[in-house]
C-alpha cells in the first residue's frame, strides 16, 4: 500500500504541476511580511491551509502581527490570512524559475522555504537537487538581502526508497545553510524532518491535520529564535474576532460590566490577546457569566480579574475554549445575524464554533 500511495502521490504531483494556480486578491494585515514558499505541503493539500493554520494561530496568540504574502490563496475562514506561495507538484527548479517575480511583488521580510519533495517523488535529477536548492537560496538572498530565510529539511515520505533519497537530500542542507551564514547571509536551518513520522501522513506524502500542526509548531519556534523575523510581540495586537460561519465579528454594544458579546458587522479590531485573556475597551475581559461552565452560559464582558472564567485557549483548529469550562465559544443556534449572542457550548466541530483573531482588512 505504501508503494501505491507513493506512486499516486507522484502522479498527482505531476498533474498538479501542469495546472495553473488560482491567485486571489491579497490580504494585507499591516504586519511583518512572511512568505510561506514551497509545494503542496505549503499549500495544504489534504488539509487546505496546512501548517499555515496553526502558525497563524500561534503568532496571533503570541502577540505578533504578521502578513502572509504570496500569489496563491487558500484555507479556511479561521485562517486569518490566506496568502502564500505554495505550488502543488512543483520542484525546486520550478520555484526558482518564478522566484524573482514573486519577491518583487511581495517583498517579504521573512521566507519559510520547504521544497524538494517533488524532486524526490518525480525522481528528477535527485543528485542535483542540493545544488538547485543552494542556487534557489542564493537567488532569494540576492533579491531580498535583508530578509530572514528559513530553509527546512523535507518531511518524511512513507515509501522507503523515496524516504532514503529524501534523507540523503536533507543531509546536505545543514552544510549549505552554514555556508550561507558564513557568507553573512540571513539563512537559518529548520529541522522539519525530525518533527514528523510517517504516522503523521494521510497519504504517504502529505501530513494529517495533526502533522501540519506539528510543522506549525516547528516554524513558530524557529521564527521566535530569530529576533525581528516576525516583529515584536505586543505591537499592534488588537484583533477582530471573526466568525467563520457568519462572516461577522464578535463585539459589544457597550463597555459596561455584563454586556453580552454578540455578532456584529466587522469594524475596527476590538480584542487584544493578553496571555489567556481577550480584552476590550481597555480593562474589560471576555467572560463566562457567573463563572458558569454549562451549555448555554452567556458570554459577556466584565472587568478583568484574572479568574479562570476569563481565560481562553485559542486553538489551532479555530475553536476558542474556556479554560475553566472546556467548552467552546459558540454563536447561539448557529445564528449569523447581527445581534446573535455568544454562549458556551460543548465543542462539536461546527462552523459556528470556528473563529479567527485577525487584523482589520
Give the helix/strand layout.
Blueprint: H1 2-18, E1 32-38, H2 40-43, H3 51-61, E2 66-68, E3 72-73, E4 83-86, H4 92-106, E5 110-114, H5 117-121, H6 129-143, E6 148-152, H7 160-182, E7 187-190, H8 209-224, E8 240-243, E9 249-251, E10 262-264, E11 272-274, E12 277-280, E13 284-288, E14 299-303, E15 312-314, E16 320-322, E17 328-331, E18 342-345, E19 355-358
Parallel strand pairs: 1-2, 1-4, 1-5, 5-6, 6-7
Antiparallel strand pairs: 3-4, 8-19, 9-10, 11-12, 12-13, 13-14, 15-16, 17-18
Helix pairs in contact: 3-8, 4-6, 6-7
Structure summary:
The chain has 361 residues and is of the alpha/beta class. The chain is built from 8 helices and 19 strands.
Overview of the molecule:
The chain has 361 residues and is of the alpha/beta class. The protein folds into two domains: 2-224, Rossmann fold (3-Layer(aba) Sandwich), CATH 3.40.50.1110; 240-358, Trefoil (Acidic Fibroblast Growth Factor, subunit A), CATH 2.80.10.50. 29% of the residues lie in helices and 21% in strands. It contains eight helices and 19 strands. It has helices spanning 2-18, 40-43, 51-61, 92-106, 117-121, 129-143, 160-182, 209-224, and strands at 32-38, 66-68, 72-73, 83-86, 110-114, 148-152, 187-190, 240-243, 249-251, 262-264, 272-274, 277-280, 284-288, 299-303, 312-314, 320-322, 328-331, 342-345, 355-358. Strands 1, 2, 3, 4, 5, 6 and 7 form a seven-stranded mixed β-sheet that branches. The chain has a four-stranded antiparallel β-sheet with strand order 11-12-13-14, with no helix packed on it. Strands 8-19 form a two-stranded antiparallel sheet. The model is unreliable at 1-25 (pLDDT under 50). Residues 1-25 form the signal peptide. Residues 236-358 form the Ricin B lectin domain. One of its GO terms (molecular function) is phosphatidylcholine lysophospholipase activity.
Amino acid at each position: 500500500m505504501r508503494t501505491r500511495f507513493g506512486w499516486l502521490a507522484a502522479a498527482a504531483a505531476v498533474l498538479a504541476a501542469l495546472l495553473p494556480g488560482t491567485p486571489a486578491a491579497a490580504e494585507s494585515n499591516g504586519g511583518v511580511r512572511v512568505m510561506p514558499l514551497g509545494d503542496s505541503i505549503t499549500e495544504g493539500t489534504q488539509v487546505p491551509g496546512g501548517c499555515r493554520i496553526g502558525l497563524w494561530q500561534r503568532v496571533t496568540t503570541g502577540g505578533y502581527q504578521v502578513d502572509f504574502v504570496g500569489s496563491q490563496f487558500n484555507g479556511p475562514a479561521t485562517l486569518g490570512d490566506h496568502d502564500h506561495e505554495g505550488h502543488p507538484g512543483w520542484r525546486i527548479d520550478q520555484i526558482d524559475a518564478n522566484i524573482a517575480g514573486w519577491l518583487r511583488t511581495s517583498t517579504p521580510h521573512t521566507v519559510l522555504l520547504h521544497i524538494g519533495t517533488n524532486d524526490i517523488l518525480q525522481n528528477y535529477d535527485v543528485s542535483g537537487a542540493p545544488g538547485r536548492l543552494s542556487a534557489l537560496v542564493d537567488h532569494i538572498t540576492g533579491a531580498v538581502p535583508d530578509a530572514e530565510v528559513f530553509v527546512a529539511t523535507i518531511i518524511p515520505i512513507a515509501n522507503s526508497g523515496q524516504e532514503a533519497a529524501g534523507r540523503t537530500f536533507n543531509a546536505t542542507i545543514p552544510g549549505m545553510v552554514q555556508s550561507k551564514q558564513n557568507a553573512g547571509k540571513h539563512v537559518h536551518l529548520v529541522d522539519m524532518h525530525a518533527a514528523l513520522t510517517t504516522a503523521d501522513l494521510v497519504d504517504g506524502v502529505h501530513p494529517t491535520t495533526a502533522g501540519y500542526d506539528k510543522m506549525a509548531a516547528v516554524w513558530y519556534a524557529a521564527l521566535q529564535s530569530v529576533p525581528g523575523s516576525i516583529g515584536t510581540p505586543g505591537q499592534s495586537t488588537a484583533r477582530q474576532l471573526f466568525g467563520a460561519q457568519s462572516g461577522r465579528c464578535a463585539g459589544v454594544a457597550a463597555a459596561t460590566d455584563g454586556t453580552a458579546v454578540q455578532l456584529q458587522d466587522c469594524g475596527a479590531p476590538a480584542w487584544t490577546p493578553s496571555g489567556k485573556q481577550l480584552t476590550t475597551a481597555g480593562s474589560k475581559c471576555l467572560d463566562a457569566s457567573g463563572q458558569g461552565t454549562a451549555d448555554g452560559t452567556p458570554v459577556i464582558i466584565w472587568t478583568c480579574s484574572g479568574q479562570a472564567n476569563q481565560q481562553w485557549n485559542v486553538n489551532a483548529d479555530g475553536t476558542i475554549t474556556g479554560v475553566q469550562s472546556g467548552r467552546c465559544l459558540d454563536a447561539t443556534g448557529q445564528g449569523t445575524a447581527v445581534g446573535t449572542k455568544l454562549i458556551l457550548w460543548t465543542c462539536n466541530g461546527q462552523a459556528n464554533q470556528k473563529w479567527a483573531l485577525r487584523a482589520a482588512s
